[in-house]
C-alpha cells in the first residue's frame, strides 16, 4: 500500500515552452525517486504514467511508509500563454497546483505533506511568483490564514520543501543594441 503522504513536485517550462521541454526532467525525477507522474501530465511514448507507476512499485522507495513522490509537469501556460506575463502565468499555475492537491486528496486518498517547485528559464520566475501567492493564500503549513479572505478547502497543509530554478533570469536581461 502506498504512503498516504505525498511530496508533490511541480515543474514549469520556460518562455514559448510546452511540457515537452521539461518532460525528461519529469520522468527522470519520478523514476530516480520511485515516484509517479500525475495522470494529468501528458507523456511522449514509450513513457506513460502507467510505465512509471510500474517502475515505482519495484523501486526501493516503494517500501517507505512515510512519503511518496508525485510529479506534475504543468501545461497551463503552454506556448503563447507565457506572453501573458509572470503574474498571470503564476496565478494559472497556482490554480493548477490546487487542482492537483484536490485530485490527490480525493482520488488517491492522501494528503500533500511537502511541495517542491521547479522552473526552467521563465518558468523559474513563474514558480517563484506562484510560491508567493500560495504563501499569501495560507496554503503552506505554519503560514497564516489567507490574507485575501480566501479559504482553501484542503486537508493538506504542506511544508514548502524546495524552490529550484534552472537558467532563470532573476535579475532580468540586458538590453541589446538595435540594428534598426
Mean pLDDT: 91
End-to-end gap: 64 Å
| SSE order | EHEHEHEHE
Number of helices: 4
InterPro entries: AB_hydrolase_fold, DUF676_lipase-like, Lipase-like
Pfam families: DUF676
Domain DUF676: 5-175
Protein name: DUF676 domain-containing protein
Explain what this protein looks like in three dimensions.
36% of the residues are buried. The protein has one domain. Helices cover 32% and strands 19% of the residues. It has 180 residues and is α/β, with parallel strands linked by helices. The model has no long low-confidence stretch (mean pLDDT 91). The protein has helices at 23-33, 49-58, 86-107, 122-136, and strands at residues 5-12, 36-37, 68-73, 111-120, 159-166. Belongs to the putative lipase ROG1 family. Residues 5-175 form the DUF676 domain. It comes from Sporisorium scitamineum.
In short:
Pfam families: DUF676 (PF05057). Helices cover 32% and strands 19% of the residues.
Keywords:
180 residues, five-stranded parallel beta sheet, 5 strands, alpha/beta
Describe the protein's topology:
Layout (H helix, E strand, L loop, with lengths): L4 E8 L10 H11 L2 E2 L11 H10 L9 E6 L12 H22 L3 E10 L1 H15 L22 E8 L14
Parallel strand pairs: 1-3, 1-4, 2-3, 4-5
